[in-house]
């Protein structure tokens, strides 16, 4: 299972169709150039080495790869035009919702590269860019040295609630949403799931809860029995991008989320370079830009699902006879170490978890 393009469209109501959100290395080498143009500043003023006229003392607008978009918005309310004010607002909004990093008060300046022409904003596939950034953040968070996770966590959390009912807020029946409403709005203001009293075993407890899941505990098609009929691009197979980040997208590994029996998928595509050390800072995946052409040739780069598999007949998690043996041989089927220590710790704690 994974988050797919139709999940992003249903949950956030942002478009899947549109141009791939890629940028060349030349455009990405100096993102501060676009920020200077947005604010009407020079590089000295942007970095805080010289004072901005009419705005008091010096201050770092751009530092350590992050941009103080909130500060810029306040500045442009006084010194900007309607266009630059709108651009800075969108930069702040997108940087604090869809493309979140772990800097707290800064946003990634590369977001601005997609806002320089406001009339072209609706031409991008914001769903694929959001998903590519989240895929990368989840990959980095999986490293042993990681200390947090970035990305659109609203998307991640609401996806969990929709597909795994046992992790939903306790004693809450989510409302039905309208056809043009974001499904994520069903969970606004709801408390977290059942809590674990002892924080020292909290992680082990939820790992065990994940290991105890069965296929019957998963809601495989929460939005539509055949979501690809509404969001055809969800069957695309290839690369999705956000700026210089590229991630492979492969729905053939998630056929049950389309209402079809899962078969053994084809071998995965391989990147040009992949380094995944324990420290997330060294996490690098490089995919040639030539792969991007697949996005514009959907019929040649999609899972033709009706020829590839059959709809499930008896239960939503149906697989072919040989799939489970393949899955066990190629996957990590359990999160928790099978040594009993974590189980003993969890059993000794006062916990509550409502399924």
From TrEMBL:
GO terms for biological process: meristem maintenance. Residues 1-327 form the Aminotransferase-like plant mobile domain. InterPro entries: AminoTfrase-like_pln_mobile, MAIN-like. Pfam families: PMD. The lineage of its organism: Eukaryota, Viridiplantae, Streptophyta, Embryophyta, Tracheophyta. It comes from Linum tenue. This is Aminotransferase-like plant mobile domain-containing protein. It comes from the Eukaryota.
């Amino acid at each position: 299972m994974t988050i797919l393009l139709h999940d992003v469209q249903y949950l956030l109501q942002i478009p899947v169709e549109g141009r791939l959100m890629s940028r060349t290395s030349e455009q990405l080498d100096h993102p501060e150039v676009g920020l200077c143009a947005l604010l009407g500043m020079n590089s000295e003023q942007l970095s805080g080495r010289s004072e901005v006229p009419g705005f008091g003392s010096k201050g770092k607008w751009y530092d350590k790869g992050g941009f103080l978009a909130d500060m810029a918005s306040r500045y442009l309310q006084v010194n900007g035009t309607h266009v630059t004010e709108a651009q800075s607002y969108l930069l702040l909004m997108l940087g604090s919702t869809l493309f979140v990093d772990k800097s707290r008060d800064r946003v990634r300046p590369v977001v601005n590269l997609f806002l320089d022409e406001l009339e072209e904003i609706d031409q991008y596939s914001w769903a694929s860019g959001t998903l590519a950034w989240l895929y990368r953040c989840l990959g980095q968070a999986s490293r042993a040295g990681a200390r947090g996770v970035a990305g659109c966590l609203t998307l991640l959390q609401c996806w969990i609630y929709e597909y795994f009912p046992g992790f939903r807020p306790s004693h809450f029946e989510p409302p039905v949403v309208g056809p043009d409403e974001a499904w994520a709005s069903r969970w606004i203001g709801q408390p977290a799931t059942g809590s674990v009293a002892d924080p020292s075993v909290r992680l082990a407890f939820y790992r065990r809860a994940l290991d105890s899941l069965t296929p019957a505990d998963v809601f495989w098609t929460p939005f539509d029995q055949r979501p690809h009929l509404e969001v055809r691009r969800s069957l695309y197979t290839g690369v999705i991008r956000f700026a210089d980040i590229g991630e492979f997208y492969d729905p053939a590994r998630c056929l049950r989320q389309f209402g079809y029996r899962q078969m053994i998928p084809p071998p995965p595509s391989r990147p040009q370079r992949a380094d995944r050390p324990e420290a997330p800072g060294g996490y690098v995946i490089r995919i040639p830009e030539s792969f991007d052409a697949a996005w514009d040739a959907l019929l040649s780069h999609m899972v033709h699902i009706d020829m590839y598999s059959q709809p499930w007949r008896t239960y939503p998690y149906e697989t072919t006879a040989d799939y489970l043996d393949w899955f066990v041989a190629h996957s990590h089927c359990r999160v928790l170490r099978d040594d009993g220590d974590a189980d003993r710790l969890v059993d000794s704690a006062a916990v509550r978890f409502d399924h």
